């Protein structure tokens, strides 16, 4: 039998202590920078709603795996009309003609992970205002904020005043190692499945005895489900609200006991 129902109003996140960076996301004018707790950072032009986007990403440490991408069209927008990007980019209304020798060149997608090619491209664009297309004046990549975003990325990864910095370069050769990646605790053994009687009893309880007066969902559409968490605890879900794309459940942690009676405590 089961007793002790505890209402779950928030999901607990188990954190593992480790030497790691603090995740960060910041806006710099028309650029967004995101860094995770391993100090891997991605800087991206925004909003990108017309299909033209520039992205720079880099990992911390000496094995930095840099990547620069310029994309016109995406999985969301689909293919967009127009000639190849390679010959049709403008920087501040002037033709942009970088050396594409070390780039992956597709009609509407340009990418390079070559450090020299990335540095050369940044020298051409770092202090400019925008990238545009020769064949369509609408889509553009605003470069306002790119320099500040990349400087912040250099700072997060400890590259400022080093030879590998993208913005404030100096003579220092070494860079800090990438922060340790947090390790997950060993996986818990799978709990024993609930018996048919346990499942039926919990579903009946969730259907008839859980107070759902505050729920707006039609009782005829309400669903109850139950899953084992451990050999002593189960998760009881009672559907409560329904939006356009999702359902909000009441969640209860139920604890087992040998008593044939239900004893319920909501907290």
UniProtKB/TrEMBL annotation:
InterPro entries: DUF1176. The lineage of its organism: Bacteria, Pseudomonadati, Pseudomonadota, Gammaproteobacteria, Enterobacterales. It comes from Pantoea ananatis (strain AJ13355). The keyword Signal applies. Keywords: Signal. Residues 1-21 form the signal peptide. This is DUF1176 domain-containing protein. It holds the Pfam family DUF1176.
């Amino acid at each position: 039998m089961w007793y002790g129902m505890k209402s779950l109003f928030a999901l607990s996140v188990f954190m593992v202590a480790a030497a790691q960076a603090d995740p960060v996301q910041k806006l710099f004018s028309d650029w967004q920078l995101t860094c995770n707790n391993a100090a891997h950072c991605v800087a991206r032009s925004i909003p990108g709603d017309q299909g033209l986007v520039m992205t720079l990403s880099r990992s911390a440490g000496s094995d930095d795996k840099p990547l620069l991408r310029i994309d016109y069209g995406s999985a969301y927008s689909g293919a967009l009309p127009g000639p190849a990007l390679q010959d049709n980019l403008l920087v501040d209304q002037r033709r942009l003609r970088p050396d594409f020798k070390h780039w992956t060149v597709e009609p509407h997608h340009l990418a390079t992970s070559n450090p020299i090619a990335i540095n050369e491209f940044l020298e051409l664009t770092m202090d400019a205002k925008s990238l545009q297309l020769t064949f369509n004046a609408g889509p553009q990549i605003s470069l306002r904020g790119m320099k500040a975003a990349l400087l912040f990325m250099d700072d997060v990864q400890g590259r400022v005043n080093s030879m590998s910095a993208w913005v404030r370069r100096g003579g220092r050769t070494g860079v800090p190692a990438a922060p340790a990646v947090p390790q997950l605790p060993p996986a818990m053994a799978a709990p024993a499945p609930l018996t048919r009687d346990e499942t039926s009893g919990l579903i009946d309880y969730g259907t008839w005895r859980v107070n759902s007066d505050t729920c707006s969902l039609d009782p005829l559409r309400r669903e109850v489900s139950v899953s084992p968490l451990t050999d002593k605890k189960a998760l009881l879900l009672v559907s409560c609200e329904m939006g356009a794309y999702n359902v909000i459940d009441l969640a209860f942690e139920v604890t087992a006991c040998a008593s044939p009676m239900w004893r319920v405590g909501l907290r």
